[in-house]
Design a protein that fits this description.
about 270 residues, alpha/beta, Rossmann fold, 2 domains, five-stranded parallel sheet, 11 helices, about 10% strand
């Protein structure tokens, strides 16, 4: 009786269990691949919560029916979740439009004197598919602009093996034909803001001014925020090139970027 009264019909419970299993399974699969970030942990946690809710629905229904404030809290929680999901959907739509509008705009900025490729995490000191896509895009742009220096930017991942992203990225580019005298490794950064700050510093040591044309290469979902942060770091003549995000991690990456936009605004990164 209580189960039916509070919407605990078998179809609802089955739907929650299936959605929860899909979210949790997605998180487990990605974590087993060595990818671990908030865009993965949050859906995994929501999935586990949905499966637990489907399993213990009747007991939860009795708990919330016992006291009026619990019913209010229950409805407020669901309302908050719906509002949050709506905001995520709006952000995803913004990402889709932004990605569709992105294109290298070097013709407007001038041929870049430097190409900065941003790291994206290196599980087990190996090039991930996301990072490989960025590096391959960087190689294309390096071929397009053969006079440009190429900066690979990324330090040591937290909790990873003792290697730096810049080291891994540089080795990848050299193995794929980039001339060694074009390569510059920035191996201290652990965030996008540090990517830009330290890249500007190391480029200055190589005679590149912040006002010179610079191209930023990163994933499609990341380029909008990266360009904002680059301008905050002092780069004034920017162009961008976007690498496609592999489908298996695309929406996890977009979800992570949702929170990165918020944290970047709070921290004044742009």
């Amino acid at each position: 009786m209580i189960d039916k009264q509070y919407g605990g019909k078998p179809a609802w419970r089955l739907a929650m269990a299936v959605v929860g299993a899909l979210l949790a399974g997605d998180g487990i699969a990605l974590m087993l691949m060595g990818v671990f970030n908030f865009g993965i942990v949050l859906p995994f946690s929501l999935g586990v919560a949905l499966m637990g809710l489907a399993w213990r629905w009747a007991a939860i229904a009795r708990w919330r029916a016992a006291v009026p404030w619990r019913r209010w809290l229950w409805h407020a929680g669901w309302a908050g979740l719906i509002v949050w999901l709506a905001s995520v959907a709006m952000f995803f739509q913004h990402m889709r439009h932004g990605i569709a509008d992105l294109a290298p705009n070097a013709s407007a900025a001038g041929a870049p004197v430097a190409i900065v490729i941003l790291g994206s995490g290196s599980p087990n000191c190996e090039v991930s598919r996301t990072l490989a896509a960025r590096l391959d895009e960087g190689l294309q742009q390096a071929s397009r602009f053969p006079a440009a220096s190429v900066v690979v930017s990324g330090g040591q991942d937290f909790g990873r093996l003792p290697c730096t992203e810049a080291g891994i990225m540089g080795d990848y580019l050299l193995a794929h034909g980039l001339a060694p005298d074009r390569l510059i490794r920035e191996d201290r950064s652990t965030s996008t803001a540090e990517n830009m700050q330290f890249s500007r510093e190391i480029l200055a040591q190589h005679g590149v001014r912040a006002t010179d044309p610079v191209m930023v290469v990163t994933s499609d979902f990341h380029l909008l925020r990266a360009e904002r942060i680059a301008r905050k770091a002092g780069f004034t003549t920017l162009s961008g090139a976007a690498a496609a995000t592999p489908l298996y991690i695309r929406y996890n990456a977009w979800l992570r970027e949702y929170f990165a936009y918020i944290s970047g605004w709070v921290l004044g990164e742009y």
